[in-house]
Amino acid sequence: MKPSIIFLFPYPLNEAPSQRFRFVQYLDILKERGYCFQTHAYLSNNAWKILYQPGHFFSKFLRIIRGYINRLLLLPKISKFDYVFIHREAAPLGPPIIEFLIAKVLRKKIIYDFDDAIWLPNFSESNKFFSFIKWYSNSKVLCRWAYKVSCGNEYLCNFAKQFNQNVVYNPTTIDTVNYHNQVSNQHKQKFVIGWTGSHSTTR
Q: Is residue 202 part of a domain?
């Protein structure tokens, strides 16, 4: 019987580019090969819709707290899985309490994945106020606690290897068959380059 995996990630499925390219595009392959897995986003679709809009302070705060409570309520279910795949972080605020419970109390094997220099402070202009609740040092701790670390480039691998020697260089790939090689008549004479990223990294 193949091992079971639970995926924890910040944003709703099919919304954030890093999630699409780091693991979502492989979920169908896992299913075809008989793996049992579940996916759990921290933020709801409603929270995602207002996250990068100016204002909505109280609504954002409530939805962030609700996401944290949902993570705590998820712990009994996490205990039943063989592996816990964490993309970026299990919770986007405060010290890594959720991750500590997963790694040290439940003693689960964590596959920790990231494709940005997430230990460096960054935030969107619309969420400047919430920057104080983010603990950018969490990535160092998660690298130490992880069974395996998956990084998107060699620079990130070098960072992770300071804390964990079981690091895999796993390049961020693009599905060129289904998405990125579709050329319309309007653009077939041009070479088009696209960039994907989040509001916090546009600058």
A: no
